[in-house]
Amino acid sequence: xxxxxxxxxxxxxxxxxxxxxxxxxxxxxxxxxxxxxxxxxxxxxxxxxxxxxxxxxxxxxxxxxxxxxxxxxxxxxxxxxxxxxxxxxxxxxxxxxxxxxxxxxxxxxxxxxxxxxxxxxxxxxxxxxxxxxxxxxxxxxxxxxxxxxxxxxxxxxxxxxxxxxxxxxxxxxxxxxxxxxxxxxxxxxxxxxxxxxxxxxxxxxxxxxxxxxxxxxxxxxx
Length: 222
Hints:
Blueprint: H1 2-13, E1 15-21, H2 30-33, H3 38-44, H4 50-72, E2 85-87, E3 93-95, E4 102-108, E5 111-117, E6 121-127, H5 133-139, H6 142-151, H7 155-174, E7 192-195, E8 198-207, E9 210-217
Antiparallel strand pairs: 1-5, 2-3, 4-5, 6-9, 7-8, 8-9
Helix pairs in contact: 6-7
């Protein structure tokens, strides 16, 4: 369902993506290891936690698969092992050989999604669960809290709360701010917003037990 939802949006919002099931991967998976560059392999050696290693490898595999689809449409083919998907000073991922392309990665077990786009884009995936009231009071704006208050006690309440959260995460990734962003000042109840001259369109989908949100900077949608 996640793949189908993103497939529809990819043509509308102009991005390529890959969804990877991390439950089917292992540290010695030859398909994963075969796409890692020397720089990536070197970084992998610094990670000690198995979960972190699998997530990191899955992220590189997903981004490179998305990049391969993007380049294939332009008739360009290359060895994935020659591509470096690194982490910048702002902790945001980027492709060393294609610095003008936007890269976004999200993990929510068992899935990892890698996305590439010519536009500034952010993606976030979260499993739908019971939201923490304290977190809602701390991170959600008044408008979002009012909407949630009307839904309390319904199944839709959980879906909407996680939708707001994934939208905030997606916007923060687009702006490369991470948790430095003041989430409480960010109202994601509308599909369109403007932040520091960045015009952003939001799109969210509920896919079974997960919610996925994408934030794209694009003046054509205003």
